Amino acid sequence: MIKFKVIPSKKALLIAILFVSLSLPFSAQNSLDNNNFWNSVQFGGGIGLNFGDGFFSGAVSPTAIYNVSPYVATGVGLNFLYSSQRDVFKSTVVGGSLIGLFNPIPEVQISTEFEQLYVNRNFDEQFVTNLDDKYWYPALFLGLGYRSGNMTFGIRYDILYDADTSIQNEAWMPFVRFWF
Prior knowledge:
Helix content is about 15%, strand content about 60%. By secondary structure, it is mainly beta. The radius of gyration is 18 Å and the shape is elongated.
Protein backbone atom coordinates (compact mmCIF):
# COMPACT_ATOMS: atom_id res chain seq x y z
CA MET A 1 0.00 0.00 0.00
CA ILE A 2 1.32 3.43 -0.95
CA LYS A 3 0.94 6.15 1.67
CA PHE A 4 1.13 9.82 0.85
CA LYS A 5 2.24 12.32 3.45
CA VAL A 6 0.58 15.67 2.94
CA ILE A 7 1.57 18.60 5.11
CA PRO A 8 -1.42 20.47 6.61
CA SER A 9 -1.27 23.46 4.29
CA LYS A 10 -1.32 21.27 1.17
CA LYS A 11 -4.12 19.13 2.58
CA ALA A 12 -6.15 22.23 3.42
CA LEU A 13 -5.54 23.73 0.00
CA LEU A 14 -6.61 20.45 -1.64
CA ILE A 15 -9.87 20.42 0.36
CA ALA A 16 -10.58 24.06 -0.50
CA ILE A 17 -9.89 23.50 -4.22
CA LEU A 18 -12.11 20.42 -4.18
CA PHE A 19 -14.98 22.35 -2.58
CA VAL A 20 -14.71 25.24 -5.04
CA SER A 21 -14.37 22.92 -8.07
CA LEU A 22 -17.48 20.98 -7.02
CA SER A 23 -19.37 24.28 -6.91
CA LEU A 24 -18.31 25.33 -10.43
CA PRO A 25 -20.82 23.14 -12.35
CA PHE A 26 -23.65 24.79 -10.39
CA SER A 27 -22.15 28.19 -11.16
CA ALA A 28 -21.90 27.45 -14.89
CA GLN A 29 -25.54 26.30 -15.04
CA ASN A 30 -26.73 29.34 -13.14
CA SER A 31 -24.86 31.72 -15.46
CA LEU A 32 -26.62 30.14 -18.46
CA ASP A 33 -29.99 30.77 -16.79
CA ASN A 34 -29.12 34.30 -15.66
CA ASN A 35 -26.91 36.43 -17.89
CA ASN A 36 -26.43 39.08 -15.21
CA PHE A 37 -23.59 37.73 -13.04
CA TRP A 38 -23.63 40.71 -10.67
CA ASN A 39 -27.21 40.04 -9.52
CA SER A 40 -25.84 36.95 -7.74
CA VAL A 41 -22.84 38.65 -6.09
CA GLN A 42 -22.88 39.93 -2.52
CA PHE A 43 -20.21 41.92 -0.70
CA GLY A 44 -19.57 41.93 3.00
CA GLY A 45 -16.96 41.04 5.55
CA GLY A 46 -15.90 42.26 8.92
CA ILE A 47 -14.12 45.03 10.75
CA GLY A 48 -12.71 44.90 14.25
CA LEU A 49 -11.14 47.29 16.74
CA ASN A 50 -9.78 46.50 20.19
CA PHE A 51 -7.75 48.76 22.45
CA GLY A 52 -6.89 49.53 26.05
CA ASP A 53 -3.92 50.17 28.37
CA GLY A 54 -1.28 50.34 25.64
CA PHE A 55 -2.84 47.59 23.49
CA PHE A 56 -4.28 48.16 20.02
CA SER A 57 -5.69 45.73 17.47
CA GLY A 58 -7.44 46.57 14.20
CA ALA A 59 -8.77 44.18 11.55
CA VAL A 60 -10.39 44.52 8.14
CA SER A 61 -11.65 41.52 6.13
CA PRO A 62 -13.68 42.32 2.99
CA THR A 63 -15.38 39.35 1.30
CA ALA A 64 -17.34 38.74 -1.91
CA ILE A 65 -19.56 35.72 -2.53
CA TYR A 66 -21.36 34.41 -5.58
CA ASN A 67 -24.77 32.87 -4.86
CA VAL A 68 -24.78 29.78 -7.05
CA SER A 69 -28.30 28.92 -5.90
CA PRO A 70 -30.50 29.69 -2.88
CA TYR A 71 -28.60 26.88 -1.12
CA VAL A 72 -24.94 27.27 -2.20
CA ALA A 73 -22.51 30.21 -2.38
CA THR A 74 -18.75 30.44 -2.94
CA GLY A 75 -16.43 33.37 -2.55
CA VAL A 76 -13.09 34.95 -1.76
CA GLY A 77 -11.87 37.30 0.93
CA LEU A 78 -8.90 39.36 2.05
CA ASN A 79 -7.61 39.62 5.61
CA PHE A 80 -5.56 42.31 7.35
CA LEU A 81 -4.84 42.51 11.07
CA TYR A 82 -2.47 44.80 12.97
CA SER A 83 -1.82 44.41 16.71
CA SER A 84 0.58 46.06 19.11
CA GLN A 85 1.29 46.25 22.81
CA ARG A 86 3.33 49.29 23.83
CA ASP A 87 6.95 48.30 24.59
CA VAL A 88 6.19 44.59 24.01
CA PHE A 89 5.37 43.63 20.38
CA LYS A 90 3.96 44.56 16.98
CA SER A 91 2.25 42.06 14.69
CA THR A 92 0.95 42.29 11.13
CA VAL A 93 -1.11 39.52 9.51
CA VAL A 94 -2.18 39.59 5.84
CA GLY A 95 -3.75 36.93 3.67
CA GLY A 96 -6.63 35.64 1.66
CA SER A 97 -9.42 33.12 1.97
CA LEU A 98 -11.76 30.90 -0.03
CA ILE A 99 -15.24 30.42 1.43
CA GLY A 100 -18.07 28.00 0.73
CA LEU A 101 -21.56 28.37 2.19
CA PHE A 102 -24.41 25.87 2.25
CA ASN A 103 -27.91 26.75 3.47
CA PRO A 104 -29.98 23.54 3.80
CA ILE A 105 -32.84 25.72 5.10
CA PRO A 106 -32.91 29.55 5.02
CA GLU A 107 -32.06 29.96 8.73
CA VAL A 108 -29.13 27.48 8.89
CA GLN A 109 -25.74 28.08 7.29
CA ILE A 110 -22.92 25.52 7.11
CA SER A 111 -19.58 27.01 6.07
CA THR A 112 -16.07 26.02 5.07
CA GLU A 113 -13.33 28.61 4.85
CA PHE A 114 -9.69 28.15 3.96
CA GLU A 115 -7.35 30.99 4.99
CA GLN A 116 -3.69 31.34 4.13
CA LEU A 117 -2.13 34.02 6.33
CA TYR A 118 1.33 35.62 6.41
CA VAL A 119 2.28 36.42 10.00
CA ASN A 120 5.01 38.95 10.92
CA ARG A 121 5.67 39.25 14.67
CA ASN A 122 8.26 41.61 16.12
CA PHE A 123 8.98 41.64 19.85
CA ASP A 124 10.80 44.43 21.66
CA GLU A 125 14.32 43.30 22.60
CA GLN A 126 14.01 44.27 26.26
CA PHE A 127 11.42 41.52 26.84
CA VAL A 128 12.24 38.71 24.45
CA THR A 129 15.12 37.95 22.13
CA ASN A 130 15.08 35.75 19.03
CA LEU A 131 11.29 35.35 18.99
CA ASP A 132 10.66 37.63 16.02
CA ASP A 133 8.93 35.48 13.48
CA LYS A 134 7.73 35.55 9.88
CA TYR A 135 5.78 32.57 8.54
CA TRP A 136 2.75 31.39 6.58
CA TYR A 137 -0.12 29.88 8.55
CA PRO A 138 -3.02 27.90 6.99
CA ALA A 139 -6.42 27.62 8.66
CA LEU A 140 -9.39 25.51 7.57
CA PHE A 141 -12.62 26.42 9.35
CA LEU A 142 -15.82 24.41 9.50
CA GLY A 143 -18.72 26.47 10.78
CA LEU A 144 -22.37 26.40 11.71
CA GLY A 145 -24.46 29.54 11.93
CA TYR A 146 -27.92 31.00 12.27
CA ARG A 147 -28.92 33.25 9.36
CA SER A 148 -31.38 36.11 9.54
CA GLY A 149 -31.62 38.39 6.52
CA ASN A 150 -28.14 39.62 5.58
CA MET A 151 -26.55 38.59 8.89
CA THR A 152 -25.25 35.23 10.08
CA PHE A 153 -23.80 34.48 13.48
CA GLY A 154 -22.41 31.21 14.75
CA ILE A 155 -19.31 29.29 15.67
CA ARG A 156 -16.47 27.84 13.60
CA TYR A 157 -13.64 25.39 14.28
CA ASP A 158 -10.13 25.41 12.75
CA ILE A 159 -9.33 21.78 11.96
CA LEU A 160 -5.68 22.71 11.21
CA TYR A 161 -5.23 24.57 14.51
CA ASP A 162 -1.67 24.54 15.90
CA ALA A 163 -1.22 26.16 19.31
CA ASP A 164 2.41 27.09 18.53
CA THR A 165 1.80 29.01 15.30
CA SER A 166 -1.86 30.04 15.21
CA ILE A 167 -2.74 33.71 15.63
CA GLN A 168 -5.80 32.59 17.62
CA ASN A 169 -5.62 31.30 21.20
CA GLU A 170 -7.93 28.34 20.51
CA ALA A 171 -9.49 26.43 17.60
CA TRP A 172 -13.12 27.37 18.38
CA MET A 173 -14.24 30.92 17.66
CA PRO A 174 -17.53 32.76 17.20
CA PHE A 175 -18.27 34.68 14.00
CA VAL A 176 -20.66 37.27 12.63
CA ARG A 177 -21.04 37.78 8.86
CA PHE A 178 -22.81 40.64 7.07
CA TRP A 179 -23.68 40.68 3.35
CA PHE A 180 -25.02 43.52 1.24
